[in-house]
Write a structure and sequence with these properties.
Elements (H helix, E strand, L loop, with lengths): L1 E15 L6 E3 L21 E2 L2 E2 H9 L4 E4 L23 E3 L4 E3 L5 H11 L2 E6 L6 H12 L5 H6 L8 E4 L12 H18 L4 E5 L9 H4 L1 H8 L8 E8 L9 H28 L6 E9 L16 H16 L4 E7 L9 E4 L2 E4 L1 H9 L6 E8 L2 E4 L8 E4 L1 E8 L2 E8 L6 E7 L4 E9 L19 E3 L7 E6 L4 E8 L1
Parallel strand pairs: 1-21, 2-5, 2-13, 5-8, 8-9, 9-10, 10-11, 11-12, 12-13
Antiparallel strand pairs: 1-16, 3-4, 6-7, 14-15, 16-19, 17-18, 19-20, 20-25, 21-24, 22-23, 22-25
Helix pairs in contact: 3-5, 5-7, 7-8, 8-9, 9-10
The structure holds alpha-L-arabinofuranose.
């Protein structure tokens, strides 16, 4: 058994944790949107206006704050007019990136209805790669214009008030293979006209995916983009994408288990670099960082299987550690969108016709949701370390056994802890400076093996268990089991 200490300072709250850090991403890819979310109103699968009831309930329970759509790579080949108007008249197209047919029965109206049913904000990514500023402006007018115009009449509903608009996706790759400076020019054109069309929207620019160190385009992308895009009034968020993999799906070694967590060191480094660049290039305006695609992407998830993969307990603990990291960067990270909501990559739920089960990652989002909107808390963690080799760094690095974040709302502290070791239980002294603890409650997500997954036959193999704590105290000693994720709620005196 290892030992650790966590000290929390409730009198030193920091930035508010943007609820959008707990956001999601749904692309027209494999069975994410079609089957996963949308089955159509005539389906035998229980649905409300074509949306699966089980999926709606799961997203509502999470208080999902924002969903990004329609891609991903799909976005830069998507022409929004194909997906509006009577469904029977919408054209069938090909989805070039994901090698499937696109029936267009799920379009802008359905996406906004989904968001309204869930209670989350819609985040639309416009087509830069094969589209035009005119097409993007028209889409925005269709969605948000409250006056009378041919486009607002086409909408036949109250304005949608879509607040977040991404200007292309992965512009260095499937979004048009631009150089950073060429994309900056395109960005200024698109953003100028989108801003003119609706001044209330928030614009998101494509940053790099700096985790892929083999691609030289990434090394200086964020710097070169910001350098060539001096108009601080045209940018609200810079996006970065990060996918992680170690080992084969559920078949990973203990070394690969540890290496996955070590990779968060480079994500932390990438956030720090972006933080410094944004502060340097836009000193008088706050530009947020949106990690608007992230998650574990196993090598088994390929185009042929619609990017479907096993979702293990390890992946869930990793999601908790990544979300802890975003909480700790609450002063810069304004949004993060797990890829992808249903069936695809590190999804929240898996469907098979009328059946659905939740993944271990779903439970981590549920256990963390009370951080949303709370103030990040100053903490100090002393814990054992292990050594592993993060992607893109030359040497092995020390990795803390515990990933921690804490927040404060009223008299309640939320403390979430990922035990990043495969085999070390960590007995931890938790001390709230200057305040006693009236009561403590919590849940732990754990299982015998970090390779464990939920299945239709055993949907709750990995499921959070309630923790019991006794009475009031000044200090708490709690053991965080190996490969686990724990959420504690501490009520102060
Ligand atoms: O999420 C799958 C794909 O990964 C997205 O379409 C793209 O943006 C990224 O490369």
């Amino acid at each position: 058994m290892s030992e650790a200490a966590i000290r929390l300072w409730p009198e030193l709250p920091k930035a508010r944790i943007s609820p959008n850090i707990y956001g999601h991403f749904a692309e027209h890819l494999g069975r994410c949107v079609y089957e996963g979310i949308w089955v159509g109103p005539k389906s035998r699968i229980p649905n409300e206006q074509g949306f699966r009831l089980d999926v709606l309930a799961a997203l509502k329970q999470l208080r999902a704050p924002v969903v990004r759509w329609p891609g991903g790579c799909f976005a830069d080949a998507y022409h929004w007019r194909d997906g509006v108007g009577p469904q029977a008249k919408r054209p069938q197209r090909t989805n070039v990136w994901w090698a499937q047919a696109e029936p267009n029965t799920f379009g802008t109206d359905e996406f906004v209805q989904l968001c309204q049913a869930v209670g989350c904000a819609p985040y639309v990514c416009v087509n830069v790669g094969s589209g035009s500023p005119r097409e993007a402006m028209a889409w925005l007018e269709y969605c948000n214009f409250g006056g009378d115009s041919a486009l607002s009449r086409m909408r036949d509903a109250q304005p949608y008030g879509v607040k977040y608009w991404g200007v292309g996706n992965e512009a260095w790759g499937c979004g048009g293979r631009f150089t950073a400076t060429d994309y900056a020019k395109e960005y200024v054109r698109f953003a100028s006209y989108l801003r003119a069309q609706d001044r209330s929207i928030k614009l998101v620019a494509c940053g790099a995916s700096p985790g892929d160190y083999r691609n030289p385009a990434f090394v200086s992308w964020n710097h070169d983009f910001c350098d060539a895009m001096p108009h601080a009034d045209l940018i609200d968020h810079l996006s970065i994408h990060r996918y992680f993999h170690r080992g084969k799906g559920a078949a990973f070694s203990d070394g690969e288990y540890h290496a996955l967590f070590a990779d968060l060191i480079t994500l932390d480094r990438d956030i720090r670099q972006a933080d410094q660049l944004l502060g340097y290039f836009y000193p008088d305006t706050f530009v947020g960082l949106a990690i608007d695609e992230w998650g574990v992407w196993h090598p088994s998830a390929v185009v042929d299987n619609g990017l479907e993969q096993e979702n293990t307990l390890r992946d869930a603990v990793f999601a908790g550690a990544a979300l802890n990291l975003f909480n700790r960067w609450a002063h810069r990270v304004t949004m993060a969108n797990l890829a992808q909501t249903i069936n695809v990559l590190q999804c929240l739920a898996v469907t098979d016709k009328a059946r659905m089960h939740l993944t271990p990652t779903y439970y981590v989002f549920d256990m963390m949701r009370r951080h949303m909107g709370a103030r990040a808390l100053t903490d100090e963690v002393e814990c054992p370390e292990f050594e592993a080799h993060p992607i893109g760094l030359k040497q092995r690095q020390p990795v803390p056994a515990l990933s921690v974040s804490a927040s404060l709302a009223g008299k309640r502290i939320r403390l979430t802890v990922a035990n990043q070791t495969v085999d070390q239980d960590v007995a931890t002294r938790i001390d709230v400076r200057g305040a006693g603890m009236a009561s403590v409650a919590g849940h732990v997500l754990n299982a015998g093996d970090p390779r464990d997954v939920n299945t239709f036959e055993e949907p709750k193999r990995v499921f959070p268990k309630r923790l019991k704590f006794e009475g009031e105290s000044q200090e708490l000693v709690h053991t965080f089991p190996a490969h686990s994720f724990t959420a504690l709620s501490i009520t102060l005196n």
